[in-house]
Amino acid sequence: MDEKIKKIMAYETVALDDERGELVLIDQTKLPGAFELLSLRRQEDIHRAIYRLQVRGAPAIGVAAAIGLYIAALDIDADDFEGFYAKFKAARDYLASARPTAVNLFWALDRMERVALGSRGETVARIRELLHDEAVRIRDEDVWVCRSIGEYGLSLIKDGDGILTHCNAGQLATVKYGTALAPIHLGREKGYNFRVFTDETRPLLQGARLSALEMQADGVDATVICDNMASQVMKNGWVQAVFVGCDRVAANGDSCNKIGTSGVAILAKYYGVPFYVCAPTSTIDMTMPCGEDIPIEERPPEEVTEMWYRERMAPLGVKVYNPAFDFADNELITAIVTEYGIASPPYAETLKKIFAEKEKFA
Ligand code: MRU
Predict the structure, then answer these.
(1) How does pLDDT run across 73-105, given as a tens digit for each residue?
(2) I need a labelling partner for 162 at 20 to 30 A (CA). Which of 1, 235, 242, 265 fits?
């Protein structure tokens, strides 16, 4: 493995270069073959990086958008608040259009917008400072939130367990640690050895390319399986727990995550394996009553038929359905692990308690 790639865990997935006023990202479309950092300033490039999954994973998207919007503010030319806010709002709406499902994108942009709206009467220079501080806060919070989820998640498993995960909800999907993979990284700090099965995660292969790399880089025993092998692996008795991340959790606990997650949840229920969803509260959307209400991104057919193949692998003209996400019904979920504790069914009640707990720290 390339030395730089081995050190991937030492890098933050999303960062702000304060001196240059640039968003710095690990380009995830190049992994695991090459480690390349992107430094972005233009809004079109930041939007494209989110859309193309150069930065991906709900928390990382949120942090990138917050930093991106701060950078937009640096380039806004205006003398008064009204002039500033009109351009700021246009930049906010533009970034918000990059992807529809991960609620962290809107959550982070809304936090930035609230800061801007609360700064009426301040100079433009001062508004920029306040936006800078909020973007840095969103980034810093992500680190402790993920660590806390990791600690709660680790309390659910024991050394030597087999863990199955889908997509990448690891450090590469956040600033540090990850959500679903945080318990494994924290376990490594304590010297635990887990056996991790990473679903390849068609069509963009976040499991095979990113989770597998992240596990290897942290010295974890990792095995890539095709998505259709999860049943066999569970039947073999190799999986003691499933950990997945999420892009949006509805108020009733239905949890939307990378396409294929609902199938894994159904298998886990069948084989009696606990199915845990790791969710920062920034990913829980109490305005969505249930999973059916969550907007599901559909992506281009070429991701299914052409990407990763030397030649197009499906007949020209055939119809393709390429939803990027699905949701696991709440009844399939053993627990939802947040930074403020572990919620168990019935989620309509316990998620409210998690937010009440959060309020105490506000
Ligand atoms: O399309 P992606 O790669 O952004 O999808 C990512 C996922 O589905 C993750 O599991 C989810 O965002 C949680 S990341 C901590």
Answers:
(1) 999 999 899 999 999 999 999 999 999 999 999
(2) 1
**Spacing, Cα 121 to ligand 1 middle (Å):** 39
Locate 259 and state its tokens. 């396409």
Does the CB atom of residue 141 touch ligand 1 within 6 A? no
Q: What are phi and psi of 178, to 5 degrees?
A: 90, -175
Q: How far is the CA of 20 from the centre of ligand 1 (A)?
A: 29
Would you state the torsion angle of the CA atoms of residues 335, 336, 338, 342, taken in this order, to the nearest 10 degrees?
-20
**Pocket of ligand 1 contains residue 56 by CB under 6 Å:** yes
Run of H or E residues at 304: helix 302-305
Query: How far away, in angstroms, is 106 Cα from ligand 1 center?
Result: 15
- The alpha carbon of residue 34 and the mean position of all alpha carbons in its chain are separated, in whole angstroms, by 21
Q: Which residue has the tokens 């504790």?
A: 341
pTM confidence score: 0.97
Cβ of 246 less than 6 Å from ligand 1 = yes
Which domains does the chain show, CATH number per domain? 3-145 (1.20.120.420), 148-359 (3.40.50.10470)
Question: pLDDT tens for residues 38-52?
Answer: 999 999 999 999 999
| Whole-angstrom distance, CA of residue 162 vs CA of residue 237 | 9
Choice from 14, 31, 167 to test ligand 1 binding pocket (greatest atom count within 8 A of CB) = 167
Strand partners, 26: 37
Sign of the torsion angle spanned by Cα atoms 9, 15, 18, 19 = positive
Residue nearest to atom 8 of ligand 1 (CA): 258
DSSP per residue, 164-219: EE-S--BGGGSSSSBSTTHHHHHHHHTT---EEEEE--TTTTIIIIIIHHHHHHTT
247 catalytically annotated: yes
